[in-house]
């Protein structure tokens, strides 16, 4: 998972708004664009929230990033994608990405936690109608799963492009939130006999399983041998 | 992560509703309670969606399960938990849990996919006010992170219980969705020279890092040596 070439300056940050400043633990919130991009680029799925008939709906979906734009795709018949309308007012969404990095085990039940990194994006999603933007978005979606993969696969043809709806969400109202570090137990609990500490969660590729009907002589590409 | 002792019969299933039957790929949807429970019990965080000022909000959060009830906790000052009200009408929510199990690399960009398992729960969340239910919920939240851990930590005291809000969401309108298996390429693409197959994603514990101030002689518990 990767982004495209960056033109963001290191000091660039998203502007805080009422809904991106948390009421609790504001010290765990961040608005730095590089940090936000890194969190977005390292996850496989986002959770896309929207409102239908007055009730919230949250669906997991693949996504891709091109600079300050996120793209989500799906069948032209799927419900959220039908709701964005054709050049209409768009669909208010909240797109959230979360990594669980470690379990934090405290002596007290109360101070159990996890180390995590998350990004929450608020905004209005719009249909992508420009064919060139749609192609770039679909490349970004494939490259998000495996960096560089779009150049090592057959691009979508006219029929596939027509069957695929793509929606865009600009990175504008954005915040990151995270927890790092160790255990925060109360001083009076330190002598308790319970093990306390941090349990990292391992991540990485397992052994790739080639398709049974792979063309003879097709080697495993280098980009799949990374950890 | 585990559930409590099950009394669900193997054939038990959630009743389908308009919003739990997908418009696309209905063959990938399931309503079996055992399958739903397994997906719920194996994840660390859920994504909780609700509506605020007419717009969707999706936040990652820890959760626990006791039979057919899910529990989410947080500070009594946090926004979603304030919105459930005290014995009021409750907060309409959508709670979604997703596992990404493998990357599916096809010869064509269009057929790239992931193998995943997800559960979507629709319902109305209510404050838990009964002290005994609240204690059981908090145990479930800790045991969800590490099975059995609630019996190996100091339980919440009166002050901690008062600072913690717990909300309940009944498992009633529920569906699972998943993709398993291999690559679905078009017949005319099979001879293309692109590697195709499934790349599993590894999961498990890394090496636990004990707290620097751990009481002398505190051994790493057996439940942290599992894969």
Automatic annotation (TrEMBL), chains A, B:
This is Pyridoxamine 5'-phosphate oxidase family protein. InterPro entries: Pyridox_Oxase-rel (IPR024747), Split_barrel_FMN-bd (IPR012349). It comes from Streptomyces chromofuscus. Residues 16-26 have a biased composition (Basic and acidic residues). SUPFAM superfamilies: FMN-binding split barrel. Residues 1-14 have a biased composition (Polar residues). Pfam families: Pyridox_ox_2 (PF12900). Residues 1-26 are annotated as: Disordered. It comes from the Bacteria. Gene3D superfamilies: Electron Transport, Fmn-binding Protein, Chain A (2.30.110.10).
């Amino acid at each position: 998972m990767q982004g495209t070439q960056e033109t963001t300056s290191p000091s660039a940050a998203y502007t805080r708004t009422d809904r991106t400043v948390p009421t609790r633990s504001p010290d765990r919130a961040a608005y730095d664009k590089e940090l936000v991009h890194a969190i977005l680029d390292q996850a496989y799925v986002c959770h896309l929230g929207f409102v239908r008939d007055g009730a919230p709906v949250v669906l997991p979906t693949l996504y891709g990033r091109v600079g300050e734009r996120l793209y989500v795709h799906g069948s032209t018949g799927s419900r959220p994608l039908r709701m964005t309308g054709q050049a209409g007012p768009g669909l208010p969404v909240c797109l959230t990405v979360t990594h669980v990095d470690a379990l934090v085990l405290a002596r007290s039940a109360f101070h159990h936690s996890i180390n995590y990194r998350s990004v929450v994006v608020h905004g209005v999603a719009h249909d992508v109608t420009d064919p060139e933007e749609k192609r770039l978005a679909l490349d970004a979606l494939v490259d998000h799963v495996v960096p560089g993969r779009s150049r090592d696969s057959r691009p979508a043809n006219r029929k596939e492009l027509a069957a695929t709806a793509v929606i865009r969400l600009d990175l504008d109202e954005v915040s990151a939130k995270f927890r790092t570090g160790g255990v925060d137990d109360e001083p009076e609990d330190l002598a308790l006999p319970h093990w306390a500490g941090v349990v990292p969660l391992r991540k990485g590729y397992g052994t790739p399983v080639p398709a049974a009907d792979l063309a003879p002589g097709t080697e495993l590409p280098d980009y799949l041998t990374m950890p």
